Amino acid sequence: MEYVSPEGLRLDGRRPMEMRQIRAEIGAVAKADGSAVFEMGNTKVIAAVYGPREVQNRSQQLSDQALVRCEYSMANFSTGDRMRRPKGDRRSTEISLVIRQTMEACILTHLMPRSQIDIFLQVLQADGGTRSACINAATLALADAGIPMRDLVTSCSAGYLNSTPLLDLNYVEDSAGGPDVTVGILPKLDKVTLLQMDAKLPMDIFENVMQLAMEGCKAVANYIREVLLENTKTLEYRRGV
Amino acid sequence: MRGIQLSLNQTQKLRLQRALEQLESLSSKANSNASVTIADTIPVNYEDGVLKGHGTSELDGEVVATMCGVVERVNKLVYVRALRARYKPEIGDIIVGRVIEVAPKRWRLEINFSQDAVLMLSSMNLPDGIQRRRTAVDELNMRSIFEENDVICAEVRGFQHDGSLHLQARSQKYGKLERGQLLTVPPYLVKRRKQHFHNLEQYGIDLILGCNGFIWVGEHIEAKDPMVEDQVNKSEQQNTKSSKNFTRLEEQEQTYTPPETRQNICRTANAVRVLSTLGFNITVEVITETVELSSSLNLDIHEMLGSEFCVLVAEREAERRRLLTKKKG
Amino acid sequence: MLQSKSFVKKTKQGRVVKVVREHYLRDDIYCGASSCKVCDSSVACLSSNASPILIVDTNVVLNQIDLLENPAIDDVVVLSVVLDEVKNKNISVYNRVRALCSNSLRKFFVFSNEYHKDTYVKAMVGESPNDRNDRAIRVATQWYQSHLGGRTRVLLITNDRENKRKATEEGISAETIESYVKSLGRPDLLDLLVHPTSGDVSMGEVEDLRPAKRKVIYSEHKPMSEITSGLHRGIYHQGKLRVNRYNPFEAYVGSESIGDEIIIYGRGNMNRAFDGDIVAVELLPQDQWHEEKSLSIADEEDDEEEDVHLVPGSADDAPRTTNLVQGSARDSNSVSSRPSGRVVGIIKRNWHSYCGSLEPMPMPAGNGGVAHALFVSKDRRIPKIRIQTRQLGNLLDKRIIVAVDSWDCLSRYPSGHYVRTIGEIGDRDTESEVVLIENDIDSRPFSSQVLACLPPLPWLVSSEDLANPIRQDLRHLCVFSVDPPGCKDIDDALHCITLPNGNFEVGVHIADVTNFVHPGTPLDDEATQRGTSVYLVERRIDMLPKPLTEDICSLRADVERLAFSVVWEMTPEAEIISTRYTKSVIKSCAALSYIEAQARMDDSRLMDPLTTDLRNMNALAKIMRLRRIERGALTLASAEVKFQIDTETHDPLDIGMYQIREANQMVEEFMLAANISVAEKILKHFPPCSLLRRHPSPTREMLEPLLRTAAAVGLNLDVSSSKALADSLDCAVGDDPYFNKLIRILATRCMTQAVYFCSGDLSPPEFCHYGLAAPLYTHFTSPIRRYADVIVHRLLAASLGIYKLPTIFQDRPQLTSIADNLNYRHRNAQMAGPGLSRTPYCHLFQETADRHGGQNSEDKIEWLYCICAQVWYRRACVLDTKR
Q1: Which residues lie in Polar residues bias regions (chain B) (predicted)?
Q2: Neighbours of B192 (CB within 10 A)
Q3: Within the 27-66 window of chain C, which residues sit less than 8 Å (CB to CB) from chain A?
């Protein structure tokens, strides 16, 4: 299958180094302490953050830091085939864990001892890159909830098909079975907090692909920062003095 | 960006937009470029060493924000005042909370903080008003004072060494709140002031603006001296022991809230709701103004939550702030 | 820059699934005209001279690809919508167009109109996809017109009448391909034109014929919707039509739904289907099922009688099928149990171009004008094809290539067009060229880029090679090779040492081809494409250039050569104790032929070290062989057919049985062992991307014909396992000396061929090699003549950490496609050998001069697979001619 035409266009008309259109909206869930919707092309994820709040299960309470929990789920209607999805299947458990670890790494948990932070992620539309979209949405929701963080975490994926590194794979490209590198970075600290790939790639190509994914992350970070700043300014001017 | 989720028609949309733009232009003069997001560097003058406050951390010798908010500087202290966040208690804050658990010698209260607050039995005046050690009997009777889900007004006493937050209610003005509505708004909309208890006499209601963003709107209750009350009660009891029916009636009368007051409570509550939707600062002045606006327009209470009123409030707020800045200028 | 337009598509995969995909429209897609000032001209390839820019419609690309390939047609814009349509309809045409577009000598430009913001069109309500695409083509043409202003003329070339009309209405200059070619004033191009069938714009003559006078020869194909529903309801059966190679009037359709093959007798029932087409078949009533033998004779007669008709629609188009019907009526009393049917529709055509010649015919009176001629393909399975030509005189005695365009139900023969001439009929070069073309074998000399990759000659082992730590110096060992006499490309050598502990060290040394063929070089690309060397009667078509094949890589005697070695320590019972893989430098001390090696072993007086080594190895090999047979390896056709070839004329004289010497078996045994050891090693290191070779176990259905035949002669075969089958084949002895061989050959034919595959594509239980009874197998020992071995060499080197794994191994789809290509080339190379024997002047089987034919039993299986078809045909009367 040809994923990049000889003219250098992908199946959806992007060039290899281009991301899909991204869009973010803060405050999608009124009840939550922080919430956001994040879209990467047709992938749409809603994130809601509750907390920091009293730990529900006392035995899990940590006396020196906050407990971070994360729940990822895909809506039945998120894919074309409307499959009934059992809750807590292996894939969602794995993604929940990955996101939890990624977010935990940047939340200043020691500032909120004996409390818990819940992150709920729901995929409304899946078109590849749900993992990345979830992380981006979670970052926005956490920032909206006013939870102190070391840095923003942003994520983006990149793949390698037809001997070309491709940024931000959509579902068709993702299901091609090629390597798919999901990277999460702390843009300010310039550190990688997440790096996932379940295929083999030679080191030099892998570095190229990862570099591309990191460029994507940085682009996402710039966008997220803009959105957050805009949001903060709005809240501030509305509040007045 | 956080949008206001209302169904607006085209003109309303324009009007709201114009009002918000006006608000923006008014505030930008006062506080430009103070907003930061996570991981933004806060420019500081290193010559006279800085104290890093809340919401900041140090990275490679730079002061970096750890949350979104507004940079505030007080002398050498630099901190980020978070906007949308949970309540950060300060000693002496007056707060409104809800009892969620009755535990040995204490109540646990949900106050929109990262943990539940603790109100010790010893930190509150007993109903009989006598200062004494709390006995086991008192402990057993705790539920007669506050039960689960009761709404309580109290004051932040401070953090215990184990990190838990303690409250106190050693005054008549604190205690159980009844016959009214509890509203929750983001805490950043409530500014700390001298006065958080307000009695809106014209409406016969009490308004408590809890620093934690819990706002109580209820029927006005005269703060009575407990000793006097007790005596009255005692004499009444003696008087009315023979005629139980009469007592019931009187009790009913006491607990009965007149419809006008109820309406006023709702009107005020809706005013708070509208203001919180728009993200405006919530003070007693603004609330009364909003209530007045709604009654002057002869709006029904339910209409206050409609989009039209929302736009009107926004316009009015813009106008108000414009006048305020003019005055200052 | 990005605009997002999502659209909704519905795909049917049993159920309706809603697919939402993004479609980004861009403004950075350039027009490709070098005269354009606005666009980025770095990619522009369309010339700026006065010639018009041609925008071709899909039907033009699909039908007139032969014309487009002619250098006279240039400055063509191929729209991406056209490419997509072509890709969906005919992948081979697509590949040809792609090749044209990437050819820097041709001025073909691909314009991605589907992604350009101004030329993207959304399907309107009620508009069919076809209409939308036509509109997209017109919109793109219009865009070109306005974009280039008046500087360059833009011409839409379409043969769709409707499209042309609409284009003209919209102010686009449009022409049909015929009128355009005519305007060029090149009559030779007109021969390449495909002549339109009804529905397209035509020159009117076909339409003018009175339809009443034309008789319908074939029944109309059923519409697709009816076929689909028929298939669902089980009335029709879908399958690939295979025409009997020896009787073109008989074809078989293997149908899954019926679980058996459906026989189709006669052209009438075949209803214009070609060999390889996917067809829908309807079963005939059982009383019309008939025996094949008598009918096939009737068909042959019919074939002889058939006369040439030259003018389409002429009155002599009377259906000949009556003859067949009579034939079948005669035989209907002997109803056979095999279902027969007739084709009702063609689901997918398998048309390509065919080699052959024109049927001899007198020159028509009006010489020089357009003449109609009948083309006879070399492949008997292909019916005669009617073509139009203006150069009849030139073509009559030539081998030519013709492509099929259409087959109307009114005409007896399909119509096609002339593509090119190969050469004179009967000329040896021409004929072998034909064989090569038929089998898609590239026999062109190596390009200069490829030759530039060779090391300078004379080549010698350098001191760097010797100093290289990865390369072990094994020059002190007594290494020798055993090959057929006259072999020049020696890619394997052996050695054997008796160790002090009584064990043996046995080494297999394989030419280190990957030392010279580096991934990504033109040399490597060329070898990937060729896939294998091809051995023909009188020549060999090399996979690698001659200097590599015969000198640099060849492990000749008494010269130092680089090798890749597998060294085992073996007990005298031939148990492998340890295996070592290393790159090495060797110096072969003798290049023996099988006969020489055998003679040495047999001559008890000889006691020199070389002979002792030979004897030791032979002893080990015998044990290994026995063990292998014990495991159930099949010796399916152990006796080889041998051909004696006249040294002068290269014509085969006789066939006989090839004598298998122990020496052959000895070499074979060690090669198998090396291959297996290497397969284990590479799979361990690279589980997802190893190139292995498997031979699938035959299913019971596949062995059905074998069992049936065996049962017919009163023989019981046990096919429960390969071991059981091998044993029962050994017991199958008939009166005929050929009987056992024929049974074995039939057994071979019932099995599928062994294939290369990428280990990531299958699960480990499927890896096994049935014929060799080995759980893992690959090809390692002949890198000079097989590309698969080159890949395996690279994998092995990477597993030893000598080299990095080339990037190609990361791309599993690409690896799979390489494996598929290797299988395809391998099969073709084998077809090309016996293919020659079908030439008219040569009736006997020909040894393909394949010296490797005898090297290991797996090669034998495949090679026999091909020749047995003919062996079978000659002795078939007693047995079954199903395939």
Answers
A1: 234-246
A2: 11
A3: 29
What are the distances in angstroms from CA C508 to CA C555, C563, C796?
12, 9, 14
* Dist. CA A220–CA A214, nearest whole Å: 10
Which pair of tokens denotes residue C212? Answer: 């009443």
Strand partners, C160: C200
Asked if C98's CB is within 8 angstroms of A12's CB, the reply is no
pLDDT at C529: 84
Chain C CB contacts of A42 under 8 Å are 6, 20-22
CATH class of domain segment(s) A22-239: alpha beta
State whether C369 and C411 are in the same domain: yes
Instruction: Check CB contact under 8 Å for C812 and A177.
Output: yes
Contact C804/A at CB under 8 A: yes
pLDDT in tens, B173-206: 899 998 899 999 999 999 898 899 999 989 999 9
d(CA B206, CA B215): 10
Looking at the structure, do residues C122 and C260 belong to the same domain, yes or no?
Answer: no
The whole domain housing C401 covers 353-425
Distance from CA of A87 to the nearest CA of B (A): 28
**Tokens of residue A139, six digits:** 């970052």
Q: How confident is the model at residue C13 (pLDDT cuts 50, 70, 90)?
A: low
**pLDDT at A211 (0 to 100):** 94
pLDDT tier, C735 (very low <50, low <70, confident <90, very high otherwise):
low
Closest CA to C594 of C854, C265, C255: C854
Burial C276-292 (b: 16+ CB within 10 A, else e): bbbbbbbbbeeebbbbb
pLDDT tens digits, one per residue of C36-69: 777 777 777 777 666 788 898 888 888 888 888 8
Whole-model pTM? Answer: 0.70
* Residue B226 in tokens: 């407990």
Q: How far apart are CA A39 and CA A47, in angstroms?
A: 11
Name the band, by pLDDT with cuts 50, 70 and 90, for residue C881: very low
Same-domain pairing of C669 and C693: yes
Residue C62 resides in a domain: yes
CATH number for C243 = 2.40.50.690
Amino acid at C660: I
B40-83, CATH topology level: OB fold (Dihydrolipoamide Acetyltransferase, E2P) (2.40.50)
Is the domain of C111 the same as that of C55?
A: yes
In angstroms, the CA C637 to CA C627 distance is 19
**What is the predicted ipTM?**
0.91
| Number of domains within chain C | 4
Confidence label for B149 from pLDDT (cuts 50, 70 and 90): very high
CB contact under 8 A, A1 and C26: no
Contact state of B66 with A150 under an 8 Å Cβ cutoff: yes
- Quick one: pLDDT band at residue A138, thresholds 50, 70, 90? very high
Q: Exposed (0-12), middle (13-18) or buried (19+): which is A85, by Cβ within 10 Å? A: middle
Shortest CA distance to B112 belongs to which of A210, A37, A33, A96? A33
Chain A residues whose beta carbon lies within 8 Å of the beta carbon of residue C77: none
Q: Do A160 and C17 touch (CB under 8 A)?
A: no
- pLDDT tens per residue across span A66-78: 999 999 999 988 8
- Decide if C564 contacts C793 (C-beta within 8 A): yes
Cβ-Cβ pairs closer than 8 A, A with C, add up to 83
B106: nearest Cα among B42, B152, B172, B71: B152
Strand, helix or coil at C66? helix
The residues that bridge with C578 in the sheet, in sequence order, are: C569
**Which of C17, C24, C812 is facing A13, going by the closest CB pair?**
C24
Q: What does the DSSP 8-state code read for residue C550?
A: I
Which comes out higher in pLDDT, residue B74 or B227?
B74
Interface test with A, best of C1, C3, C8, C24 (most A CBs within 10 A): C24
Q: Spell out which residues of chain A touch residue B82, defining contact as CB-CB under 8 Å.
A: 146
